[in-house]
Amino acid sequence: MKRLMLGAALVLALVAAGCGGGGGGGDELTKEEYSSQLNAICSDLDAKNKEIGEPQSLQDIAEKGDDLLAAFDDAIAEVKDLNPPAELEEPHNEFVDLGEQQRELIGQIVDAAQEDPPDEAQIEQIGPKVDPIDAKSNDIAKNELGAPACAED
């Protein structure tokens, strides 16, 4: 049970790492402007997550999950509004897709934690699916988008 709670808490903590994105309207940003704005979005998300607090138990996930997901949703929306330069459009879109995949899985974990009693089997099944998505998102953020604030070390 303790391992399950730690695993679920760690998965939920990954919310801070991936922002997602998609390409909005307006003027195309330079690579430097894009990276700067993306880093700022992820730094803001990290600050909001620290304010909410990292879940330490299934009960914490149930209680804090909705707030953490709302902050993640806001960050994804902000990233989608960015207009990357043409050279970053493909990795930007992939980053968005990965963020949305993370959000879906983490949402399922929160839902399972909020059940009475919590659906531990569901959480155990979903948790490992987040890691490879997170790793790929981190790689894109650091190595292609110039946004280390969006990558977990």
Model description:
The chain is mostly helical. It has one domain. It has 5 helices and no strands. It has helices at residues 2-13, 31-52, 58-81, 89-114, 120-143. Helix 1 packs parallel to helix 3 (58-81). It is elongated. Mean pLDDT is 86; it is low at 1-7 and 15-25.
Feature tags:
153 residues
Number of domains: 1
The secondary structure category is: mainly alpha
Characterize the main sheet. none
Count of alpha/pi helices:
5
Average pLDDT works out at 86
Radius of gyration: 15 Å
Shape: elongated
Would you identify the regions where 5 or more consecutive residues have pLDDT less than 50?
1-7, 15-25
Strand fraction: under 5%
The secondary-structure element order is HHHHH
According to DSSP, the number of beta strands is 0
- Binned, the helix content reads over 70%
Distance between the termini: 26 Å
Short description:
The protein is mainly α. 71% of the residues lie in helices and 0% in strands. Helix 1 runs parallel beside helix 5 (120-143), helix 3 packs antiparallel against helix 4 and helix 4 (89-114) packs antiparallel against helix 5.
